[in-house]
Amino acid sequence: MTNIYAALEIGTSRTVLAIGEAETGGRLKVACHAEIPSTGVRKSQILDISQATQSIKSVLREVGRKQSATGDSITVGNAFLVVSGQHVKADPYQGTAQVAGSKVSADDINEVVRSSQLMSLPRDRELLDIVEQAYELDGLEGIVSPKGMSGRVLKLDTLQIHADKNRIDNARTAAAEAHLEIRDPLFAATCAADAVLSPADRRNGALVLDLGGGSTGWTVCIDGYPVLANAIGIGGDHVTSDISYAFQTTQAQAEELKRTEANAVVGADRSASARVKLPGFSPLMEGKTVSRKALDTVVNLRLKELLSLIRMDLEDRDLLHRLNAGAVLTGGGAAQRGIEALVAKELGLPARIGVPLEIGGLEHVPNPASFAAISGALVYAHRNYEEKSFFGSFFKGLFK
């Protein structure tokens, strides 16, 4: 039986559902996906459960419609949840175990792994992931595999990613009302990193910026594993609101200006006209224009503010100089014109748009970077559940 997984993202701008299928040979592909504009969500949090439920129902119907058109008949019963927003945090935690014999055994490793899972969280927080980093044996750090090594005290460094439990419960409630069970909640930025970074990127040091509508998340991978995960409540919707306020337009007009005309770097479009016509068909809008330079300046200022805060975080943790593979941009904001150049300038790093590497089926998607997080959730599911013996029987009841 082919293994099948689903992932759901209830974002500020859109609700996305994707179905992943493990093909013969282990290659994972997106068999079907759908997206619709979100309702009842603002700044990466659900404000109206009934509206969010309707968004989930709509995206489920769209997936069903697409499958019917291709002759497929998979009914989605559960999905991994992609979580974003400023409420997501990450803390380091170290597990410790005494080595039973003179050399580290498999039992000792299992014991230190268990110890690393004992970090206490406040009742209002929910654990999203425990990222295993490197082992330490009697003060020797950076050990990848300690089995067979001589020593007495074994330690394991981890990064514990957690989020506001109430916000995740709200997503569970909205999904349950749409007859969809939520599996593991996962952080969008670490999912995006899973999807777009190569092993060399992870070793050499890479920053993944997941540019969402209501928030921006980032993950740093060094020496092969994540060492930082963080988020801030600034995203593409804030840029849209700035444009709307500056030029007295509707949100829809501002979004269209941002998407089709604005550049993150002021003066980059030297061959373009100096003024931009406002979108819309109202007689009141006929002939109304705004300065291209002013438009670009509004976008530039908000994005520079965002990048300055991210740079401060990286500098405070002494990580910026270790990012030899540069910055990789994902999320809907990666489609903003000029964003690569602005990131490179503000962070002093080479920057590129991230494309999912470990998963197929997105070759014809206009902006594959916007599917990085949900692709990474499917990769996570495939990697962590395909070898579990209960997998087949468990999912047969949920995917029919």
What's the rounded overall pLDDT mean?
91
CATH structural architecture of the domain at 198-354: 2-Layer Sandwich
Low-pLDDT parts are 387-400
The number of helical segments is: 11
Number of strands: 19
CATH class value of the domain at 198-354: Alpha Beta
* Largest β-sheet summary: 6 strands, mixed
Helix/strand order: EEEEEHEEHEEEHEHHEEEHHEEHEHEEHH
CATH fold-level topology of the domain at 198-354: Nucleotidyltransferase, domain 5
What is the radius of gyration? 23 Å
Largest sheet strand order: 11-6-1-2-3-19
Q: Note the gap between the termini.
A: 12 Å
Oligomeric composition of the shown chains = single chain
Share of β-strand residues:
25-35%
CATH homologous superfamily heading of the domain at 198-354: ATPase, nucleotide binding domain
Question: Structural class of the secondary elements?
Answer: alpha/beta
Q: How much helical structure, as a percent, in the residues? A: 25-40%
- What gross morphology would you assign? globular
